[in-house]
Write a structure and sequence with these properties.
The chain contains nine helices and ten strands. By secondary structure, it is of the alpha/beta class.
Length: 286
């Protein structure tokens, strides 16, 4: 079976990714000039966390745990940081709109709900069934294009945008791990050759610590001399041989002082999503 975003909707990695994306968008929107949001592997955009045979229940240790912590003030260090409460409000807004407490917005829904009149979006999905669902959901969304095809190819064909500002999410399935990593590196290089100031975000799985360290070095090498920060959150020790120890994000050309804000809210998030304190988190340069 092909990887589907729905299988892991709302899990701890989704939460880590989505909190960061919304915070990045908010930071970029402090400037009035418009931007392009480009999602290379968009999925279907919205999910039902109680859909039999599709979702796996991982949201219980992810978004649902976080929502309870924010609601009852049980976070590891008191009141939730603004970036966390902003994300929770975005999820609740989607649930109110759909009249369901099991509704969960993927990155397309989260980001489209926050775009301004001067902003645009391009959502790309390769899997046919997922694209049909994406199109059904967003085909009438203003200032939004949908494309069925290879998201990596768009990193060369769609950049630079007319706005000369872009936030790009690269979130492949990593089914063929070596090939996906190779395509990510090539995609970053292609994007930066055409548009060196774009804010590029790559999600990557953390399975073993040494592999994550090697990947960070590879990203630093392929984006030089541009700035890159890594945000990592793991729920198990980095030498554990579980399916997924943690979630990583490589952020190329991060907005000014964004890493300082991450260092403020990431430990709070990790404290909620890892109540056993078996893992950890960090904002790294390489």
């Amino acid at each position: 079976m092909k990887y589907l975003h729905a299988h892991h909707a709302g899990n701890f990695a989704d939460v880590h990714k989505h909190v960061t994306l919304l915070a990045l968008l908010a930071a970029m929107q402090r400037k009035p000039k418009g931007l392009l949001y480009l999602d290379t592997h968009a999925g279907r955009g919205t999910y039902d966390l109680d859909q039999p045979g599709v979702t796996t229940g991982e949201a219980g240790d992810g978004v649902l745990r976080l929502m309870r912590a924010v609601a009852d003030g049980s976070g590891a260090a008191g009141a939730a940081p603004a970036e966390i409460t902003d994300y929770i409000e975005a999820v609740r807004s989607e649930q109110r709109t759909r009249g369901s407490r099991q509704a969960y917005p993927g990155s397309p829904a989260l980001m489209l709900n926050r775009l301004r009149d001067v902003d645009r979006a391009l959502l790309i999905e390769a899997q046919q069934d997922e694209f049909i669902a994406l199109r059904r959901e967003f085909e009438r969304q203003p200032r939004t294009r949908l494309r069925h095809g290879d998201g990596f190819a768009a990193l060369a064909s769609e950049l630079p945008p007319v706005e000369r500002r872009a936030l790009v999410l690269i979130d492949p399935p990593y089914e063929e791990t070596r090939e996906d990593y190779r395509r990510v590196e090539a995609g970053l290089q292609a994007a930066l050759q055409r548009f060196e100031t774009g804010v590029l975000v790559v999600w990557y799985p953390i399975k073993l610590g040494r592999d994550a360290a090697n990947w960070r070095r590879a990203v630093v090498d392929c984006v030089k001399p541009r700035s890159v920060r890594f945000s990592e959150l793991w729920r198990f020790p980095l030498d554990s041989r579980v399916g997924l120890n943690g979630s990583g994000l490589a952020i190329v050309n991060p907005p000014y002082l964004f890493d300082e804000r991450m260092r403020a809210w990431l430990p709070w998030l990790a404290g909620v999503l890892d109540p056993a304190h078996a893992g950890g988190c960090g904002v790294l340069d390489s």
